[in-house]
């Protein structure tokens, strides 16, 4: 087989320059500035800075508020990822077996994908409205009086429900595509060998969906950590008080509203290290159990 190549050895490097410039400008340079600022106590008006070493990091460790938000972020990310993947997989399996009205059924499940996170947060405020919200009235029948932005756990519950609702269509699209890419011959052979649909799914279908599931696992954790910012800000109406917030939102509060640039930079570095460790763990431990061929 003839291998494609470039006649000029400098041409591929030249083609890479725009992409490398964007990565350096929007990732490496801000990351370096955040790392540098995390060791300084900076004047909020930019008039000076004082080197404080690791004081910004030790201050985070000693902060009960930061540790509570850190645990909430871990819990929030885990619950959103688990239920988003589980519900989407269930809907994709059911949609894959629909014969009549399949396109309509799938479109109804996918349209939420086009909703922006702040809009999803606004919808959550409507359905959880304390006086006339449909979900508030539904849960009140079981004796649960939901009060968003007044009760810590009720607010966390609304955030989780809105985040799951927003992410399920994305996972549904990928899972459905993965199911439809499984060869028909494999399905028919599995049907002959095993009549139990539940057992056939876990022994044949689910292993074949593993690469898709691994990709979605990474995407969903990233979504829960970073992309729920707009939704959380809308639900809290930019006034979190003592309500639950994620670490990304805490960076925004301390950096842009509290003008604590050094502390906010230290939090950004902690987030970068957390994401790096999580990515290494996923690719070293989880991906080894997945077979792509």
Automatic annotation (TrEMBL):
<keyword id="KW-0997">Cell inner membrane</keyword>
<dbReference type="InterPro" id="IPR035906">
    <property type="entry name" value="MetI-like_sf"/>
</dbReference>
<keyword id="KW-0812">Transmembrane</keyword>
<feature type="transmembrane region" description="Helical">
    <location>
        <begin position="261"/>
        <end position="281"/>
    </location>
</feature>
<comment type="similarity">
    <text>Belongs to the binding-protein-dependent transport system permease family.</text>
</comment>
<comment type="subunit">
    <text>The complex is composed of two ATP-binding proteins (UgpC), two transmembrane proteins (UgpA and UgpE) and a solute-binding protein (UgpB).</text>
</comment>
<feature type="transmembrane region" description="Helical">
    <location>
        <begin position="70"/>
        <end position="93"/>
    </location>
</feature>
<feature type="transmembrane region" description="Helical">
    <location>
        <begin position="105"/>
        <end position="128"/>
    </location>
</feature>
<protein>
    <recommendedName>
        <fullName>sn-glycerol-3-phosphate transport system permease protein UgpA</fullName>
    </recommendedName>
</protein>
<dbReference type="Pfam" id="PF00528">
    <property type="entry name" value="BPD_transp_1"/>
</dbReference>
<keyword id="KW-0472">Membrane</keyword>
<feature type="transmembrane region" description="Helical">
    <location>
        <begin position="156"/>
        <end position="179"/>
    </location>
</feature>
<feature type="transmembrane region" description="Helical">
    <location>
        <begin position="12"/>
        <end position="31"/>
    </location>
</feature>
<dbReference type="InterPro" id="IPR000515">
    <property type="entry name" value="MetI-like"/>
</dbReference>
<keyword id="KW-1003">Cell membrane</keyword>
<keyword id="KW-0813">Transport</keyword>
<dbReference type="InterPro" id="IPR050809">
    <property type="entry name" value="UgpAE/MalFG_permease"/>
</dbReference>
<comment type="function">
    <text>Part of the ABC transporter complex UgpBAEC involved in sn-glycerol-3-phosphate (G3P) import. Probably responsible for the translocation of the substrate across the membrane.</text>
</comment>
<keyword id="KW-1133">Transmembrane helix</keyword>
<feature type="transmembrane region" description="Helical">
    <location>
        <begin position="200"/>
        <end position="226"/>
    </location>
</feature>
<feature type="domain" description="ABC transmembrane type-1">
    <location>
        <begin position="74"/>
        <end position="282"/>
    </location>
</feature>
């Amino acid at each position: 087989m003839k291998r494609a190549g470039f006649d000029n050895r400098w041409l591929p490097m030249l083609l890479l320059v725009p992409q490398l410039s964007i990565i350096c400008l929007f990732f490496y340079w801000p990351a370096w500035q955040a790392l540098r600022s995390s060791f300084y106590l900076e004047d909020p008006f930019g008039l000076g800075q004082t080197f404080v070493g690791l004081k910004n990091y030790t201050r985070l460790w000693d902060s009960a508020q930061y540790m509570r938000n850190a645990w909430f972020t871990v819990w929030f990310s885990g619950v959103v990822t688990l239920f988003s993947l589980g519900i989407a997989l269930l809907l994709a399996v059911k949609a894959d077996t629909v014969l009549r009205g399949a396109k309509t059924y799938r479109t109804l499940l996918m349209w939420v994908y086009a909703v922006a996170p702040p809009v999803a947060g606004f919808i959550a405020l409507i359905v959880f409205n304390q006086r006339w919200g449909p979900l508030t009235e539904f849960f009140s029948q079981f004796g649960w009086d939901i009060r968003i932005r007044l009760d810590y756990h009720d607010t966390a519950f609304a955030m989780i429900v809105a985040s799951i609702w927003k992410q399920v269509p994305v996972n549904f699209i990928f899972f459905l595509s993965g199911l439809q890419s499984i060869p028909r011959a494999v399905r028919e052979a599995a049907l002959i060998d095993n009549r139990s649909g539940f057992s056939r799914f876990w022994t044949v279908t689910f292993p074949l969906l593993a690469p898709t599931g691994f990709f979605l696992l990474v995407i969903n954790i990233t979504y829960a950590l970073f992309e729920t910012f707009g939704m959380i800000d809308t639900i809290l109406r930019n006034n979190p008080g003592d309500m639950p917030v994620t670490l990304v939102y805490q960076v925004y509060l301390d950096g842009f509203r509290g003008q604590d640039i050094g502390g906010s930079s230290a939090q950004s570095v902690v987030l970068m290290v957390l994401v790096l460790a999580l990515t290494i763990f996923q690719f070293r431990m989880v991906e080894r159990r997945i077979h792509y061929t």
